[in-house]
């Protein structure tokens, strides 16, 4: 085996002080030490002596994320000594940057650049988080024709098989007999019956955490059909389900001492003669009736039944968290790369934001502004699934979900994109895990701890 090639993060000052022997070559090739740039330094006999990488002002998870696809297919090592926490971040960023979605491409045997595990890095955390992130990306990026409710169930079963977890599934008309009417109503028009996936794992006496993920495998908009531009990316509308499966992979793979439950309402919001109509009134698991102001606001309907099941479990969970690609309003407010979070416990939201910053997985809190609750009133039912205003759409959606949360249960709602619309270091265009590592850190600190 050849000697691994060292990689050094360098600033312009480092270039002159610590790599003076390479400065002339770096300047000749135009390398100035800018972030997300690198310079290959030649050695004797046409070999590669080292790699210089521009150092950002703040070194984070993504500092090396662009390199796996940019460097020659050699074996590399970190040239400097790093504290364990930073070594873990740098290696994770490299591993995530090496991801490609190749399911539908011809196989290639082309060699890849490899980074040896840095000394002090957390092997279990990096390998498990990489596997979890790849799982999320694969699920979200897979076309809807190959990722319907049945295939999502298969993916959940495979996860359970890996970790000796239990999966129970309620399918089709059994949703009605077991009182999940909203999940049934949204998914009944598709050829694959709607279903509720219910995963349990861990010591029954451990602190309880329940995750709920929106699993709308494709969203046509229903009879309030989306235009083509709005429908194009709707294979990602099960991104909430994918993220909770990825988070479950982390929790189980790293053996957090919790009793984990994962609830995924898996449906397709399709169009057929039995599809939900605008202004239909539907019953819910909680007993509240819901007027369907728009059939394209279906995600909150399936989440409502799942959330009420989550908060009514006995003994009650210490924390309920839902992930959902819920509103365009959140994307307008925060863009596609920053998930919105809501919580009925301000201190819990603060802790989540802190965790997100610590692991370079940021979120932004939006308020559960109670005066907006009046906007989801209905004249013919207990609630409407849409607001009577075009403003504050992510807030009114969260307030709708809050109707299905018992106030004594700590709850966090994440409204996320689950998709990279541009390629960034370590984060290629396509399906993405967002908020997953932040929530894992929160659970580790506040529940498992």
Automatic annotation (TrEMBL):
Domain Cytosol aminopeptidase, chain residue ranges per copy: 294-301
Q: Which CDD domains match?
A: Peptidase_M17 (cd00433)
Asked if the keyword Transmembrane helix belongs to this entry, the reply reads no
GO (cellular component) term, any one: cytoplasm
Q: Which GO terms describe its molecular function?
A: manganese ion binding; metalloaminopeptidase activity
Q: Which residues form a coiled coil?
A: none
UniProt-listed Pfam families: Peptidase_M17, Peptidase_M17_N_1
What superkingdom does the record give? Bacteria
Write out the function statement from the record: Presumably involved in the processing and regular turnover of intracellular proteins. Catalyzes the removal of unsubstituted N-terminal amino acids from various peptides.
Which family does the similarity line name? Answer: Belongs to the peptidase M17 family.
The protein, known as? Probable cytosol aminopeptidase
Native source species: Shackletoniella antarctica
């Amino acid at each position: 085996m050849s000697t691994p090639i060292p990689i050094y993060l360098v600033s312009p000052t480092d270039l002159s002080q610590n790599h003076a022997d390479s400065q002339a070559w770096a300047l000749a090739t135009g390398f100035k030490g800018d972030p997300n740039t690198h310079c290959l330094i030649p050695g004797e006999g046409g070999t590669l002596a080292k790699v210089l990488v521009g150092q950002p002002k703040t070194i984070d998870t993504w500092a090396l994320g662009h390199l796996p696809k940019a460097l020659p297919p050699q074996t590399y090592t970190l040239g400097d000594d790093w504290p364990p926490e930073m070594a873990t971040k740098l290696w994770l960023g490299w591993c995530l940057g090496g991801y490609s979605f190749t399911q539908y491409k011809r196989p290639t045997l082309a060699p890849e650049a490899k980074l040896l595990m840095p000394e002090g890095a957390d092997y279990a955390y990096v390998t498990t988080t990489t596997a979890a992130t790849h799982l999320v990306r694969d699920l979200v990026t897979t076309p809807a024709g190959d990722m319907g409710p049945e295939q999502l169930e298969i993916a959940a079963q495979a996860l359970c098989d890996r970790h000796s977890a239990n999966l129970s599934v309620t399918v089709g008309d059994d949703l009605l007999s077991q009182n999940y009417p909203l999940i049934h109503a949204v998914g009944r028009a598709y050829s694959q019956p709607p279903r509720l996936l219910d995963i349990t794992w861990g010591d029954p006496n451990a602190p309880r955490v329940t995750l709920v993920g929106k699993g709308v495998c494709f969203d046509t908009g229903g009879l309030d059909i989306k235009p083509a531009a709005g429908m194009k990316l709707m294979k990602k509308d099960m991104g909430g389900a994918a993220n909770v499966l990825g988070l479950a992979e982390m929790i189980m793979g790293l053996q957090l001492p919790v009793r984990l439950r994962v609830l995924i309402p898996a449906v397709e919001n399709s169009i057929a003669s039995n599809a939900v109509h605008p202004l239909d009134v539907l019953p819910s698991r909680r007993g509240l009736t819901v007027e369907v102001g728009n059939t394209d606001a279906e995600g909150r309907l399936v989440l409502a039944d799942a959330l009420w099941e989550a908060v009514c479990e006995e003994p009650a969970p210490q924390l309920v968290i839902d992930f959902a690609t819920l509103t365009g309003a959140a994307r307008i407010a925060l863009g596609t790369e920053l998930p919105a979070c809501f919580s009925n416990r301000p201190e819990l939201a603060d802790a989540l934001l802190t965790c997100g910053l610590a692991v370079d997985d940021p979120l932004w809190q939006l308020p559960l502004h109670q005066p907006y609750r009046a906007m989801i009133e209905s004249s013919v039912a207990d609630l409407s699934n849409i607001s009577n205003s075009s403003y504050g759409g992510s807030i009114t959606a969260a307030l709708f979900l809050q109707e299905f949360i018992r106030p004594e249960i700590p709850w966090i709602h994440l409204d996320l994109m689950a998709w990279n619309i541009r390629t960034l270091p370590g984060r290629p265009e396509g399906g993405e895990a967002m908020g997953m590592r932040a929530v894992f850190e929160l659970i580790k600190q506040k529940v498992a701890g």
